[in-house]
Write a structure and sequence with these properties.
With 245 residues, the chain is an alpha+beta fold. The chain has a domain at 184-241. The protein contains five helices and four strands. β3 (55-60) and β4 (66-68) form a beta hairpin. α2 runs antiparallel to α3 and α3 packs antiparallel against α4 (138-206).
């Protein structure tokens, strides 16, 4: 699909100086001034995974009348533009309150990063516009609102980043506790194996048919000797297994 022209076709009296300074893409957010005309070049609200930036122009002609390239009503256009940023930030704030895992916060940070930059640049652009046309009091209100949005975006980004760090620390702690439990279980299993290994080994040897006809095998004494030797050997193996490295 062909891209929408940056300059509307119905802006017949749009200054040629502005036309010559605008390229095929929007470029950075900035202002242009030509005699009594003022042009604010801004970015629309960035969407997630959006590589380029979609531009919107706010033109104040010599008579003080505002026009917007996206069709919004002139004088209210800048306010509506800022409202879209505010709505987007409110949606992110709602998502941040529901996030639980580090992966959730990572997705939010990826979406918030371009909005933080765009908000900050928009505030700086409107500050330049206010200085260029100090007689237009509405630019002061728009500048102040842009500052509040920029501050909100910065705080939201920092809160999300801190929450992600906390979630990662909590997850690492849970993994460490699980690893510790597994290590304790493995240690107990090794201890039991070392303790009863001699019993199993000697029992397998003397439990064969080779000892059935031995005279001493019919007495209880060999059994107690077997238990004592196996126990002592098992304790020795246990001490060796549990010896600190």
């Amino acid at each position: 699909m062909p891209s929408t022209p940056l300059i509307p076709s119905n802006w017949a009296s749009f200054p040629d100086e502005f036309r010559n300074r605008l390229g095929s893409t929007v470029g950075r957010q900035r202002i242009m001034q030509s005699e009594q005309d003022l042009l604010v070049v801004a970015h629309q609200v960035p969407e997630h995974d959006e590589l380029g930036r979609r531009g919107v122009l706010f033109w104040r002609d010599a008579s003080g009348e505002w026009r917007c390239s996206n069709g919004d009503p002139g004088k209210a256009a800048l306010g509506l533009h800022l409202d879209r940023y505010a709505k987007k930030l409110d949606a992110f704030e709602n998502s941040v309150s529901k996030a639980m895992r580090a992966d959730d916060y990572l997705v939010l940070l990826e979406g918030l990063a371009p909005i933080v930059r765009s908000n900050r640049n928009l505030f700086e652009t409107l500050e330049e516009a206010r200085k260029a046309v100090p007689s237009d009091r509405s630019l002061i209100d728009h500048r102040d609102k842009a500052y509040d949005l920029s501050r909100q975006a910065d705080l939201l980004y920092e809160d999300s980043k801190n929450s992600m760090d906390v979630a990662m620390v909590r997850r690492a702690d849970e993994q460490a506790q699980a690893s510790h439990k597994m290590m304790v279980a493995a240690h107990r299993l090794n201890t039991l194996a070392a303790l009863f290994f001699p019993f199993a080994t000697l029992g397998a040897i003397f439990g064969t048919t080779l000892t059935d006809n031995w005279n001493w095998s019919k007495s209880a004494v060999p059994f107690f000797i077997f238990v004592i030797i196996s126990g002592l050997t098992g304790l020795a193996l246990t001490k060796f297994v549990t010896k600190p490295t």
